[in-house]
Amino acid sequence: MLIRLAGKSLANRRGTALLVVLSMALSVALLLGVERLRDQVRDSFASTVSGVDLIVGARSGPLNLLLYSVFRIGEPTANVSWKSVERIAAQPQVDWVVPLSLGDSHRGFPVLGTSAAYFDHYRYARQRSLEFADGEPFDDLFDAVVGANVAQRLGYQLGQEIALSHGGGKVSLIDHADKPFRIVGILAATGTPVDNTVHVSLQGIEAIHADWLAGAPLPGMRLTAEQVRERDLRPRSVTALMVGLKSRIAVFQVQRSINTAAEEPLLAIIPGVALQQLWQMMALAENALALVAWMVVMVAVVVMLTALLTALNERRREMAILRAIGARPWQIFALVIGESLLLTLLGVLAGVLLLQLASLLAAPWVSARLGLALTLWSPVAKEFILIAAVMLAALLAGVWPAWRAYRQSLTDGLGMRL
Amino acid sequence: MSNLLSLQNVSYQWPGASEPVLQIGQLSLAAAERVFIIGPSGCGKTTLLSLIAGIAVPQAGQVIFQGEQVSGWRSSQRDRLRADQFGIIFQVFNLLPYLSVLDNVLLTAKFSASRRCQAEQLSGSATAEAERLLERLGLPEELWQRPATALSVGQQQRVAAARALFGRPALLLADEPTSALDSEHRDRFIPLLMEECEAAGAALLFVSHDVSLSQHFSRVLDLRELNKSARADGVSC
Question: Do the domain assignments include residue B52?
Answer without folding.
Answer: yes
